[in-house]
Amino acid sequence: MGREARQCSIANALAVVGERWSLLAIREIFFGNRRFDEIARHTGASRDILAARLKTLVSAGVLVKRQYEVHPPRYEYTLTEAGRALQPVLLTLMDWGDRYVTAKSPPPTVWRHECGSEFHPRTVCENCGEPATTDDLTPIRLGKVG
Questions:
Q1: What is the pLDDT of residues 106-141, one digit of tens each?
Q2: 3-class secondary structure, 134
Q3: Cβ atoms within 10 A of the Cβ of 110, count?
């Protein structure tokens, strides 16, 4: 008897952005590096793998590819609304990495909020504004239960 995987939006999202080079390419575009050579240099991805990941992100509607030079043809990548919506995910992943993986050395990048303080993301309830922890949340399965 085969096992059926749980239907899950996390799994669906990972199918689009869950590969290392995809997330690092998105990081670079957040940092303002929009051209292929800049993205390749700052991620360390091979050109063929990076080209494939960028193509997937464009197809998924995370990025838009725009030509900025005709001879030779050259392109830059910009974030769509879906791509910009990944910012809190990347900031939270970076914060987790700073705390639990890179913890013994200073973080390589910090973000400063416009108020002047170093920025650390946190998840809050949209309704009441209170911080949300695993103890405060209850999953409610909609649709097919697996």
A1: 888 899 999 999 999 999 999 999 999 899 999 888
A2: coil
A3: 12
